[in-house]
Each structure stands twice: as C-alpha cells, then as structure tokens.
Amino acid sequence: MLSTVEREAVCNVCHDGKAVYYRVYSGERLCRTCFVKTFEKRVIRTIGRYKLFKPDDKIAVAVSGGKDSLSLLYVLKKIEKRFPRAGLLAVTVDEGIEGYRDEALEYVEEVTRMLEVPLYKTSFEEVFGKTLSEIVASRQFRLSGLAACSVCGPLRRRAINIAAKRAGATVIATAHTLDDVVQTYFLKTFRGELGTSEIGLRLEGPFIPRVAPFRLTPEREVVFYAYLHNIPFQSQVCPNAADSMRNMIRRFLAEFDERYPGSLFAALRSFEKTATLGKKIQMVCSSCGEPSSRELCRVCELTQTLIH
Ligand code: SF4
What we know:
- The chain is an alpha/beta fold.
- The chain has 2 domains: about 1-30, no CATH class; about 35-275, HUPs (Rossmann fold), CATH 3.40.50.
- It contains 13 helices and 7 strands.
- A 5-stranded parallel beta sheet has the order 5-4-3-6-7, with helices on both faces.
- Helix 3 (about 65-80) runs parallel beside helix 4, helix 3 (about 65-80) packs across helix 10 (about 220-230) and helix 9 crosses helix 11.
- The longest helix is centred in the middle third of the chain and has 19 residues, at about 150-165.
- The protein starts with a helix and ends with a helix.
- The structure holds iron/sulfur cluster (SF4).
- Iron/sulfur cluster binds near residues 95, 152, 153 and 240.
- Iron/sulfur cluster (SF4) binds near residues 149, 153 and 241.
C-alpha cells in the first residue's frame, strides 16, 4: 500500500510508528495502530451519524465469506462489547454455485467460530426449491437473457431476510462499502430509480431494516484491515461473475477515484443531497409485502418466470 519512499515515513497521526498505509485522499500516512484506530472510529462514526443501530438491537451480519463481510463481522464484534444490551449473529446463504460456495462457507464457519458469533445458514434450495446452478441451467433462464448475478442478487437478499427473521434479528448489517454504495447510486440513476429507496440506511417498516456500517469506508481500506488482522477470506472469483452494468460502473469509478482521489466521498455527498436521505421512503411489493422499489418486487418477478 506504500511506495518505497513512503515506507520510510513516520505515521503523521501519532508521529511515532512506521507508516504502513497512505490515505491518498486525506494525505495521512498511518502506522498499523493508527490505521486500525481510525478505521474503527470511522465505522462507529458512521453508525452514529446515520443512526444505524439501536442500543438493544439484535444485529444479523450478512456474511458471504468474502473480505468485506468477514471484516464487518470482526469490527462489529469489537464494537458490540461497548453495547451490552446489543446482540450479534451472522447469517449466510448457500446459493448452490457448484465448485465455488463450499470454500467461502468454510471461511464463514471458521471466522464465526473464532469470534464466537452464532451462525444461521440457509440456501436457495431451502428457500426457492432450486440451487442457482439449477436455475441458470434451465431453459427459462437461457431464454430470459438475464445474467446470473441479476437473479442471484435479489434471491440472496430475500434469503438473508428470511434467515434473519428466523434468527429473531431486528436489523441486518451488510458489508457494502463506500465504493458499493456509490456504484448503486449510479446504477439507480441509470435505471431511473434514484430516490425510490435509500441504500444502506435504516428505514423502519414492516420488515427488518438493512444498514451498511461501511458506507463511509473505501473498499481498499477494508482489504487492508482484513490483511492486518489475518482474517481468512475467499479470493476465488465466482464462475458466474459477468460483465454486468455494475462491473462497468465499478471499473469507471475505480479509475476516476484513482486519478481524482476523494471523488467517491464527493459523489456520496451529492447523492445524499438529492436522494431520499431522511425522508423515510420505502415502498413494498404488492404481491409479497417485502421492501421493493417497484410495484412487483424483483424476487416475485423472478420466481414467477424462472422458478415456478
Ligand atoms: Fe451471485 Fe453473481 Fe456474486 Fe456469483 S458473482 S455470487 S452469481 S451475485
């Protein structure tokens, strides 16, 4: 994370430790201790600023086995100690992706065991009657022209909701980083859906709210946090990862932020001014009653056309 010259530098927060991380958008060169401290402080600030949790929440962390979700579980476990009335658990979904999910699930089991966090599991097979591999092998799927991720994403969100409800959770924490949140705002802009719902902020309603404590944390810093804590995570890429619209936006934003550091923070501020922040808007699906940004939610559309 640091060039040779930067590696010689001393942390410019404590003026003592050797710098190991250069935060280019702020000019900070941080030693390990200051990086971890400022990283965790930012998560606490994010939770406070957006009022993501209540003191007696039972928080379900959605974990996939990737670096972001396991780092989130790790940091929330640390923070939870300050809130004795709060509870923490993990939920995970086996989509049924042949040759891919098993390794990730092993990491999920290992980290939850290590942190002593109860784990609740579910699967596409249990909830929808079919694995993702079976769905994408079907004739209906081939005719639909959809990418596997367009099916997987909404179904996984629904399965997580079901598992969290079953576990008695009052809120779901997802590991969406600053990068993910800004990508989603752009996606919603291009789909004409900006303003229909908030992203990663607590909206109360007849469902479990979903919040993103990494909303103000760049993905790059989550990777470094996972590395510093030796958090094991899956690095294998999903065989279905397609050249989706999100991937195009991800590449563009990553290049833009690399050239103009701080752009993601600026974009988030702009979206927060124009989106629904604070207006508590949340539509629900007319068929299943789950949160939705349209009349019929994506899960109902998919289950009606691809699964039944
Ligand atoms: Fe699902 Fe796509 Fe992610 Fe694979 S890459 S796990 S198909 S959303």
